[in-house]
Amino acid sequence: MFGVFGLVGAICFVLWSYFTYESVRKSMQWEEAPAIITQLNNSGYPTISFEYNGKNHEFHENFSSSDMYTGQEVKVYFPPGEPDKAELKSFFASWFLTLFLGIFWLVFGGVGAIGLFWVSKASRMRQELVVKGKGRKVSVPIGEVNQDFSFKVNGRSPFIIVGQWLDKSSNTVYQFKSEYIWYNPAPYLDGKKEVDVYIDPNDLKRYYLDISFLPKKG
């Protein structure tokens, strides 16, 4: 799921980069001319007329706005010496698609990046501390089952199991959180009061809370 979000975000980023480059290039390199909206069709799209080198040019624009009206003075721009390729020059006409793609890139890319980071982090910790046997296994009491409302995907927030462990040598209480669980695990604990945590002996901030006893989400 996070991979799909990341892929959509990456595609939006590529498109955003292209259209941003095109908008900047047009703004800096294209010629500009005053123009007038001669009419609006039934869908609200304008016909725009302007003069270049003593010759009148007219084109139909595929961008519309609620504040457009017949007789309105506007600006157009076009490649140097090519008035037949003219386009309406306005902030929204030039930047609407870029802004739209930018929002999609940030939303989808952000969710995908954060999700993949947590998934890969849990996978790395499990591989190193559990599979390779580098972690110190301790059984800790299950403190609570919480829902992380700070993170949402399609309006849903994941659950986490929280365990606490007292390091008697330093008289310090450490709190361990599981990876994201996309259903409420509380009914499936079956009276379980402890969970196994694999801890890096050299860095107690690096750990893996084992939730392999839970059923897989269908």
Helix and strand topology:
Blueprint: H1 2-29, E1 31-40, E2 46-52, E3 55-60, E4 73-78, E5 87-89, H2 91-131, E6 136-147, E7 159-167, E8 172-177, E9 194-200, E10 203-209
Antiparallel strand pairs: 1-2, 1-4, 2-3, 4-5, 6-7, 6-9, 7-8, 9-10
Helix pairs in contact: 1-2
Strand order of the largest sheet: 3-2-1-4-5
- What is the average of the pLDDT values? 86
What is the end-to-end distance? Answer: 13 Å
Class by alpha and beta content: alpha+beta
Low-confidence stretches: none
Put simply, the count of helices is: 2
Shape: elongated
Rg result: 29 Å
CATH level-1 class of the largest domain:
Mainly Beta
Topology, number of strands: 10
The largest β sheet comes out as: 5 strands, antiparallel
Any key phrases for this structure?
218 residues, alpha+beta, OB fold (Dihydrolipoamide Acetyltransferase, E2P), 2 domains, 5-stranded antiparallel β-sheet
